[in-house]
Design brief:
The chain has three helices and no strands. By secondary structure, the protein is mainly alpha-helical. It has a domain at 2-125. It is rod-shaped. It starts with a helix and ends with a helix.
C-alpha cells in the first residue's frame, strides 16, 4: 500500500513539473517537441518504476493471494469441523433418550439383583440363627435332663437312705459285715 501511495505522489509531482515548462507564458501544445519529450520522460520514468516494483508487487500479491486462499481453506475446514461436531452432538442428543432408558433398565435390573441378594443373605442368616437356637435348645435340654437326673438320683438316694435307716436293724448290719468279710477272703 505504501508503494502505491508513493508512486501516485511521484506521478502527480512529475505531471505538475512537466506541465510548468520554462515559463508560464509558454504553453506547450500537444504536438510540440517539448510535450513529446515530457511524455517520453514520463513513460520512461514510470516504466522504470513499474519494472522496478513489478517483481516485489507480484510477490506481494502472490503471497497475499496465497494467504487469502489459506485463510479461506482454514475457514472451510473450521466450518466443516463445526458442522461435523454439530452433527455428532445432534446424534448424541438423539441417542441420549435411548441411553437414559438403557440406564434406567440397568438400574432396575441391578436393584432387583440386590433385592434378591439381600433376601438370600437374610434367609441364610435366619437359617443359621435357627440352627444355633436348635443347638442351644438341645444343649439346654441335655443340661436340664442331667440336672433332673441328678436331682432324681439325689432324691432316690435320700429316700433309700431314709428307708435304710428306718428298716435297717443291727442284725442286718452284722449279717452284711459277715458277708463282706467272706467276700474279701475269697478275693484274697
Amino acid at each position: 500500500m505504501r508503494i502505491i501511495s508513493f508512486l501516485f505522489n511521484l506521478m502527480v509531482v512529475t505531471i505538475v513539473y512537466a506541465s510548468e515548462g520554462h515559463g508560464s507564458s509558454h504553453a506547450p501544445s500537444m504536438f510540440s517537441l517539448d510535450f513529446l519529450f515530457r511524455v517520453i520522460n514520463f513513460v520512461i520514468l514510470f516504466g522504470g518504476i513499474g519494472y522496478a516494483i513489478s517483481k516485489p508487487l507480484k510477490n506481494y500479491l502472490k503471497e497475499r493471494s496465497k494467504n487469502v486462499k489459506e485463510a479461506i481453506l482454514e475457514a472451510k475446514k473450521a466450518k466443516e469441523d463445526a458442522e461435523a461436531k454439530a452433527r455428532y452432538y445432534e446424534e448424541k442428543l438423539r441417542n441420549l433418550q435411548f441411553e437414559i432408558d438403557a440406564l434406567k433398565e440397568q438400574f432396575k435390573k441391578e436393584t432387583e439383583e440386590e433385592k434378591e441378594r439381600i433376601a438370600r443373605d437374610y434367609q441364610e442368616q435366619i437359617e443359621r440363627f435357627k440352627e444355633r437356637m436348635i443347638k442351644s435348645l438341645d444343649q439346654e435340654k441335655l443340661k436340664i435332663r442331667e440336672e433332673l437326673l441328678m436331682e432324681l438320683g439325689n432324691r432316690a438316694f435320700e429316700v433309700a437312705e431314709e428307708m435304710v435307716r428306718k428298716n435297717f436293724t443291727p442284725a442286718d448290719q452284722s449279717r452284711l459285715v459277715r458277708e463282706y468279710i467272706t467276700m474279701m477272703e475269697r478275693v484274697n
